[in-house]
Design goal:
The protein is α/β, with parallel strands linked by helices. The protein contains eleven helices and eight strands.
Length: 253
């Protein structure tokens, strides 16, 4: 009912030369994927990635976008700039942006609306810190972050939005939520969207990924869960064979 979507988040990795090598190796490995395939690259690699993936089933995304169309925002990139390059997706609200660069629920919402206004497809990240999880606040955190991210977003845009649940304590640590825990929290996010919009909207229009260290070893189990529609992949997206294995996950019956 909901087509799976696997997105690689390269973070601050890969030069243009490395991008050429990785994408060239990746293209034949994922050409028959049943999932939508996205690679989100650093700004300097975007033009190269877009050019190399033309005519393939690989879509290209950026790792952030500013809420203003233009202006005195040194170091930022606007939605128009990304569209001009041929970018389709953009990650918004990643925990590293929240942790290191002052991202808030309000700025996430502003970026989401700016992206949608220019026809970009946001991948909105939500997730709890370790101390929030240990305090039993996981549901409270993801409900708040989801509600704030979708503030003033029209129902007609839902098919253009992906949500990524990324428990912050599981990113880059090798730790991962159990498949059952990840599924349960993603159901909380989907129920939140049902409350904000409608049950059918949440069940048929919005895809929700798991973004906490999904890799070659756990992808099949995670993707077997009914609420999990894909993954936002960090480290495993930097090696073509590993990312391809995640993209071509085996459907566990």
């Amino acid at each position: 009912m909901r087509k799976p979507i696997i997105a690689g988040n390269w973070k601050m990795n890969n030069t243009i030369a490395a991008t050429k090598a990785l994408v060239t190796e990746l293209i034949p490995l994922v050409k028959d994927a049943k999932a939508d395939v996205v690679i989100c690259t650093p700004y300097t690699d975007l033009a190269t990635a877009v050019e190399l993936t033309k005519g393939t089933n690989i879509h290209v995304g950026a790792e952030n976008v500013h809420w203003a169309e233009k202006g005195a925002f040194t170091g930022e990139i606007s939605a128009d700039m990304l569209k001009e390059l041929g970018v389709e997706y953009v990650i918004i609200g990643h925990s590293e942006r929240r942790q290191y660069f002052g991202e808030t629920d309000a700025t996430v919402n502003a970026r989401v609306k700016a992206a949608l206004a220019k026809g970009l497809k946001p991948i909105i990240c939500v997730g709890e810190l370790l101390e929030e999880r240990e305090a039993g606040k996981t549901d409270e955190v993801v409900i708040r972050q989801t509600t704030e991210a979708f503030k003033d977003v029209d129902k007609s845009e839902l098919e253009n939005i992906v949500v990524a649940y990324e428990p912050v304590w599981a990113i880059g640590t090798g730790k991962t939520a159990t498949a059952e825990d990840a599924n349960a929290t993603i159901k909380v996010i989907r129920d939140t969207l049902a409350n904000l919009y409608c049950r059918n909207c949440a069940d048929t229009k919005i895809r929700i990924q798991y973004g906490g260290s999904m890799n070659t070893k756990n992808v099949d189990e995670l993707m077997a869960m009914p609420e999990i529609d894909g993954g936002l992949i960090g480290g495993a997206s930097l090696k073509a064979a590993d990312f391809a294995r995640v993209v071509n996950f085996e459907e566990v019956k």
